[in-house]
Amino acid sequence: MKLYVSFAARIRAMIDEGVLRPGDKIFSVRQASQKYSLSISTVLRAYLLLEQEGIISSHPQSGYYVTQRKRLKQRGSPLAKDINLAEVDASKLVLTTLKSIREFGTVPLGSPFPDPQLFPLKKIHQYEKALTDDEGEWGILSDLPPGNEMLRQQIARRYLFHGMDISPDDIVITHGATEAITLCLQAVAKPGATIVLESPGYYALAHTVERLGMQVLELHTDPESGLDLDALRATISAINIAAVVLTANFQNPLGFVMPDTKKQALVALLAEQQIPLIEDDVYSELYFSDEPPKPTKAFDHEGLVLHCSSFSKCLTPGYRVGWTVAGRYRQEVERLMFLSSLSLPSAPQIAIAKFMQRDSFEQHLKQLRHTLRSQYILMRNVIEESFPAGTELSVPKGGYVIWVRLPPQLDALDLYRAAIDNGITVAPGSIFSRQKQLTHYIRLNFSHLWSLAIEQAVRQLGKLACKLLDESQQNPS
Ligand SMILES: Cc1ncc(COP(=O)(O)O)c(C=O)c1O
User: Fold this and answer.
1) Could you tell me the distance, in angstroms and rounded to a whole number, from the CA of residue 177 to the centre of ligand 1?
2) Which residue segments constitute the domains of the chain, with CATH numbers given?
């Protein structure tokens, strides 16, 4: 047994035997490392495992504590530790998934981020280094919200390229799409308001809505065409909805594109009731077909669609540059931007603008789309060869994630844990919805440059899934 697993078992036993009780502080990482002669990373991995299981929790700047929650019964398999989906705290699972990607040096198939090797980062860094003092230091004045003008012009040109007439003055630059969506939510709704989200959908949105004191209402989202409009119509007639937030193009995790007729119907339905639609369109440039999909914003005649996007998925994941075209809420979003973070640093805005102006952004995107499409096919083939019979795969139309439906007897959290033990991360389906039905789904990231290591990791994952399925069939609970 691995060292960290046996150390975690030791702590678990102390809790079971009542040596450590709910609310007790446990050894700090350093104390445990000295007392049990373990490396810091072994202790950290053990604590992370116990956190995932909901047995302990970390309190910033204070330490680790035994949680108050009751433990569940152990199940047969050594890997089927005591997480029951009904007890899983989705926000903790998101954090542990993200931590496991960062800390373990694992094959990051569960990562939400694109592989940085896909991007012309050297070129963009050169532009950043070559900034004049005026641009770098005094940009703080000229680049206050709505943001750097040259960058807004370049973004407006991109909209034009996609057939949409958006002025640079309509655009507000933000810290990634994340801040764009947050500001848009604050501009259209007050604490207590109900916000409709997709299920499954991008997990951070539910956390953002709740952090703002608003209520999440998840609606069924079809894997091929998106949000259920009948359910939306029924909801609107039953309760007050302040806004809908969704991704119509290459939705995360499902990968679909909502058909244009449905986009049009959605915008019209919301316009009837004057309900704003916040469109999260971060994957829009990563299409596999010849033509880019239209955003729902293209069907908006009333300024009720707040279109949010960023360069995080298509150019520079680390620069955190995003934007919103917030229609009739533009001024309010700009005001909130001043109040929340004042402004973005000038350097990344200018470096991106110069790259877009002087280098072939379109050429880079063509290459990126080609690489992602090829890697999707490679990963799909390996999954089809190595995963158990009964596994089903989404057919993403773009982006870089594939949604895998495992045979229903297989608990995705068991696979998630077994994968971590084997140095591989996956994103368990349960983080993509509050509705606790996605117990046998995982999401895999195919953006990582294809290599033997990636191929072997996918095959290994398939083997683990087959083994766990066999075990569950031998010991049905
Ligand atoms: C659907 C979706 N929206 C937004 C984001 C975050 O975008 P940004 O990095 O620009 O804040 C992500 C990142 O995974 C995402 O998947």
Assistant:
1) 6
2) 3-66 (1.10.10.10), 78-118+363-474 (3.90.1150.10), 138-359 (3.40.640.10)
